[in-house]
Amino acid sequence: MSTTETRAPLAAPAGKARRDPAARARRTLVYVLLTLGLIVTVAPFLWMALSSFKTQRELGASPPVWWPSEWTLDNFRELLDRMDVGQALFNSLLVAVLVTVCNLLFCSMLGYALAKLNFAGKRPIFGIVLGALMVPGNLMLLPMFVMMSAMGLIDSYAALILPFAAGAFGVFLMRQFIQAIPDELLEAARMDGAREWYIFWRIVLPLVKPALATLSIFVFLGSWNNFLWPLVATNDPGKYTLPVALATFATDPTQADGSNGVLMAGAFLVVLPVLLVFVLLQRFFTQGIATAGLK
Question: Are the C-beta atoms of residues 130 and 172 closer than 8 Å to each other?
C-alpha cells in the first residue's frame, strides 16, 4: 500500500512532462499565426503612415525604404496647398459627429421602447428592424437620392446626415442590451413616481454605457469612411467630406500627378481620427463586446 502511494505522485509529473511539449507547441503555433495576422493587418497602415513623412526620393527608391532616413512634413504642406483640407475635414467631422449623436439618441430611445414598453405594433416594428438588417445598404442609394432630391436637400449637410440619423443595427444592439436590465429596477422607479423620460435618461442610459460606446465607434467609423453616398448626394466641392475630396484630388491628373507622398499624407489624415476615437473608447468597446457575449 505504501509502495502504491509512493509511485502515484511520481507518475503524474511524468505524464505532465509528456503533455507539456505538445501544449507549448500549440501555444507557439497560435502566437506565430496571430503575429502573422497582425503583420498582414498592420503593415499597409504602417507603410502609409511612414510614407507620408518620406521624401520623393525615398518614395521612389528601389528596393523600397520602410523607415524614412529624412523625416519631412513637405507632403502635408503640399496637400494643404493643393487641396482645401480644412473644409473637407470640417465637413467630415460635422457629419460624423452629428450622425453619431443622432444614432445614440434615437436608437437607444427606440431600443428602450422595444425592450421595456408595451404598445400596439411592437412586434411588427421589431420585425421591420430585423428585416432592415438584411437589406444591403447600396440598395437604398436610389430611394434616398430620390427622397433627398424631392425635399430639395441635395448639396446640403442635411442630405449627408438625415438618411443615417438612425440605423437598424443600432436599434437592435440597444434593444438587446436594454432588455438585460431587470424589469424590477424600472418598476421600482415607476412606483416612486419617475416618468419614462427620467427612467430612460437617468437609469437606463448609465447602465448601457458599453453599448453606447460600441455603437458610437461603429457609427462614427461608418460615417467617417462613407464615400459612395456623399459622392452621390453632393456636387458642391464645399460640401465634400474628406474621403470624397481626397478621391477627387487623386483622380485629377492636374493635381495629384506624381504626388504619391501627398496622397499618403491625405490617407493618413483620413485614418488618424478613427484611430483616436477607437483608442479613447477602447475600454468601453471591449467591455461591450464581453457583455454581449454573456447574454
Answer: yes
Q: How far apart are CA 54 and CA 225, in angstroms?
A: 25
Q: What is the pTM of this model?
A: 0.78
Q: For residues 216 and 119, is the Cβ–Cβ distance under 8 A?
A: no
Q: How far apart are CA 51 and CA 261, in angstroms?
A: 6
Cell of 92: 467630415
What is each CA distance from 65 to 38, 257, 260, in whole angstroms? 21, 21, 14
pLDDT tens sequence across 226-275: 888 999 888 888 889 988 988 888 777 666 565 777 888 888 888 888 88
Residue of 124, 125, 163 lying closest to 142 (CA atoms)? 163
| Whether the Cβ atoms of residue 239 and residue 155 lie closer than 8 Å to each other | yes
Express each pLDDT in 75-131 by its tens digit.
888 888 888 888 888 999 999 999 999 999 999 999 999 998 888 888 999 999 989
Query: How remote is the C-alpha of 168 from its chain's centroid?
Result: 16
Residues making up the chain, counted from first to last: 295
From residue 19, how far is each of 12, 14, 204 by CA, in Å? Answer: 11, 9, 49
